[in-house]
Amino acid sequence: xxxxxxxxxxxxxxxxxxxxxxxxxxxxxxxxxxxxxxxxxxxxxxxxxxxxxxxxxxxxxxxxxxxxxxxxxxxxxxxxxxxxxxxxxxxxxxxxxxxxxxxxxxxxxxxxxxxxxxxxxxxxxxxxx
Length: 129
Hints:
Layout: E1 10-13, E2 19-27, E3 35-45, E4 55-61, E5 67-75, E6 83-89, H1 91-94, E7 101-109, E8 117-128
Antiparallel strand pairs: 1-8, 2-7, 3-6, 3-8, 4-5, 4-7
């Protein structure tokens, strides 16, 4: 549904009182010089207000599900109705987690209003060198 490339993308929310999450864990290798995370996201909304009521977040969690860092915090006011790329240098956040599994989490929430937002994620890449 609504892919950036290929046939599909991850679809988060689009209905009232939503709380959707998708995630993927990966092991941080030792002796790395660079860890980069990139993805494309798309937000669309039927809200006419600029008040942030529906939210889209991207975070990194450690093995205890504690937040290591926030990559993105967006909301219905940021929903432009087109694909936007995010490139994030995660090296300084993740080098201390060498040998451990961390989790990249994409999440969305919407209010109980009948007016709502949809968020899509595609082409996620974790590049380690």
